[in-house]
Amino acid sequence: MEARKKWDILSISSIPLSMTLANSMLIPVLPAMQKALRITPLQASLIITAYAAVAILFIPIAGYLSDRFSRKAVILPSLLIVSAAGAGAGIVATIGSEHAYGYIMAARLVQGLGSAGCFPVVLPLVGDLFKKEEDVSAGLGLVETANTFGKVVSPILGAAFAIWTWYAPFYAIPVFSLISFLLVLFFVKSPSSQNEEDADKTGLGEFIKSIGTIFRAKGKWLSGIFAIGGISMFVVFGSLFFLSESLETRGVKPLIKGLVLAIPLAGLCLVSFLSGKWIGRNKRTMKWTSLVGLGLAFAALLLLAIVRRDQTWWVVLMLAVGSSGIGAALPSLDALITEGIDKKQRGTVTSLYSSMRFIGVAAGPPVSALLMKGSMSALFYVSAGSLVVAVLINTFAIRPGQVS
Question: In which domain, by residue range, is 30 found?
Fold first, then answer.
């Protein structure tokens, strides 16, 4: 990787880190929120879902704007929106009222709007920064690692903040977002192709037609990657919600709970980092790395569905194996989709991919809450079945020779 751009990539990596903290940090606090706000587990899960649901709608718009103007022009205001909404949720929770849950949900919706212009724009920005494909892959590996590292530390931080009060994580969100804002503002140099004079001035109608042309030519493998990304996030966030609720019923103390939640995510983070290093620029390696990883995740969750889950260590171990498998797949998916699309359309296409991932994030917790009412086995059978679909899509839809 080019030495002079290391500060750029480190600053960019702070964006997915702060956005992940803004969502995942609340997962270990959800049971405490249920008690404080007098809400059901399903209502608590919607606090996570609301953030992702709005992002799904606005991510494509953010991608288009980043292609038309510049990546930084979209990212920086979005980080400020996330900060303001986080502070708003904290203030509402501090004041307290019978309508606190509704106000917090509104703040989370606004926060989701801000997040739409953050992480999804990161992927094309990394692609813009580097000329060599191996540098792009390494950069995307670092970004995905920062994203997963945020997932690792977020339950620990969330649980630690909750020792003071359950709404403390809301106040932490503006701090992390503003740090990311300053890093991007001062250290990320926009590539020349993203300067105002070189920005794509194509009209919206013509631009949509060009995207349609891309999907007609590359729709099979693009749609496949979109679907796999959504399924992966559905499994990860559904499993996290299950583990958080399970540890609460077993009487695990808050900080220990955060540490236990971090174990599966640590596996995801480590394997994601190693995978980003391993795949390089070899698209065939990307396909097979993601395929093996998804197969491993399927096997782990199928075992959880079949074998008794009385022992906490067994549940955590299998979730760690499953998360590690998904961690192997994610950098490969990022690299395939980023390197296979021209820079002029890269922002919009990768944003559509991010929308699919956010659909998984949004669906995971409420689906888990509903399935857990009936049978824990049903939850893991559904997750394992979803991964079977991902494996089949990877096998038949992603052809390395067609990704160019």
Answer: 3-187+201-402
